[in-house]
């Protein structure tokens, strides 16, 4: 039987900050139906580095694993920010597909529902939200967008059968977007291993990055910190500087949200 990912596998070897700048809800799908040994290894590495990066930036976190039903996904709105990590594919019925996609894997409709409830609560509380891979796709579907079920010409996005899944992918960042301001450049190299991507962009969102073949690699809300990237900045084989820029911007936004929530409300005369 394939190993499962346990919370202890992804817990950083760092103490939490005594006085965190912000407290982040991290939503992860550590396990999903049909998970492979390769997936287990990737999720362990990626999740551990994401959590370590938060701690290094002075943020505390609480990890919510949607492997099992969440007691109160709407509680995500009580944190200073919401980080959505990778995992299996979103159930096609969530974005209007009438039949299952034969290329889909790791589908867990209950985990999707928990994630959407967390996103809705964090958005209603005006918290910054940052999604990676599956997380980015969830942000798009939560706004009524759709997903490309399977990228046929996949060479830019993942390895061929029998080759390493992850590839270094050139990604163009759209000038004038929040993502461009964060990364400080119009092209990066991302670590990619995805067979799905954003198709129709959700309500109020814009494309923030694209692959060289036009596949959407980043989305955002121009009016708030609601940002998704399709590649994996939390892969240590990718550029550390880009990871730091993305996570720093998210933690900075969460810290501002924390301070805004703590500010006293002026009394009416």
From TrEMBL:
It comes from Mycolicibacterium mageritense. It comes from the Bacteria. The lineage of its organism: Bacteria, Bacillati, Actinomycetota, Actinomycetes, Mycobacteriales. This is Gamma-glutamyl-gamma-aminobutyrate hydrolase family protein.
């Amino acid at each position: 039987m394939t190993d499962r990912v346990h919370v202890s596998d992804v817990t950083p070897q760092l103490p939490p900050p005594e006085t965190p700048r912000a407290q982040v809800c991290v939503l992860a799908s550590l396990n999903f139906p049909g998970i492979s040994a390769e997936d287990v290894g990737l999720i362990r590495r990626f999740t551990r580095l994401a959590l370590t990066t938060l701690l290094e930036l002075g943020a505390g976190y609480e990890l919510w694993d949607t492997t099992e039903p969440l007691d109160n996904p709407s509680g995500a709105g009580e944190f200073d920010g919401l980080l959505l990590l990778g995992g299996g594919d979103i159930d096609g019925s969530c974005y209007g597909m009438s039949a299952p996609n034969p290329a889909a894997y790791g589908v867990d409709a209950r985990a999707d529902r928990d994630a959407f409830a967390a996103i809705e609560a964090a958005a209603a509380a005006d918290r910054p939200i940052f999604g990676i891979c599956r997380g980015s796709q969830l942000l798009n579907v939560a706004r009524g967008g759709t997903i490309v079920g399977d990228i046929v010409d996949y060479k830019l996005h993942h390895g061929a059968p029998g080759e390493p899944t992850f590839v270094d992918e050139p990604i163009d960042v759209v000038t004038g977007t929040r993502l461009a301001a964060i990364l400080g450049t119009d092209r990066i190299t991302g670590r990619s291993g995805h067979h799905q991507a954003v198709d129709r962009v959700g309500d109020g969102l814009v494309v923030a990055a694209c692959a060289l073949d036009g596949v959407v690699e980043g989305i955002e809300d121009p009016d708030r910190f609601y940002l998704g990237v399709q590649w994996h900045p939390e892969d240590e084989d990718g550029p550390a500087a880009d990871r730091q820029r993305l996570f720093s911007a998210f933690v900075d936004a969460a810290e501002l949200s924390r301070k805004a929530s703590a500010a006293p409300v002026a009394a009416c005369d």
